[in-house]
Amino acid sequence: MFSKLLIANRGEIAIRIMRACKEMGIRSVAVYSEADANALHTRFADEAVLIGPPPPRESYLDIEKVIAAAQQTGAEAIHPGYGFLSENAAFAEAVEAAGLVFVGPPVGAIRAMGDKAESKIKMKAAGVPTVPGVEGIETAAAFEEAARQISYPVLVKAAAGGGGKGMRIVWQPKDLPEELSAAKREALNAFGDDRILLEKFVPNARHIEFQVFGDHFGNLVHFFERECSVQRRNQKIIEESPSPLLTPTLRQEMGAAAVAAAKAVGYTNAGTIEFIVDPNTLNFYFLEMNTRLQVEHPVTELVVGLDLVQWQFRVAAGERFPFSQGQLSQRGHAIECRIYAEDPANHFLPSTGRLLAVAHPEGPGIRIDSSIAPGLEVNHHYDPLLAKLSVHAEDRPAAIRRMAAALRETVVHGVVTNIDFLQDVLAHADFVDGKVTTRWVESIFGQWRPPGTPPLEALLAAALADFSLPAASTGANRTDSSSPDPFSPWQGGSGFRN
Amino acid sequence: MKLTLDYTGQSFPLDLAPTGKAYTLEVNGVRHVVEIIRAQNGRLDIRLSAAQSAPVSAITAHISTDGLKRWVTVNGRTYLLTKSTGGRRTGGGGQHGAGELTAPMPGQVRAVNVSEGELVTRGQTLLLLEAMKMEIRVQALTDGVVKLLRVRQGQTVERDQILIVIGDK
Question: Residue A490, Cβ neighbours under 10 Å: how many?
Answer without folding.
Answer: 8
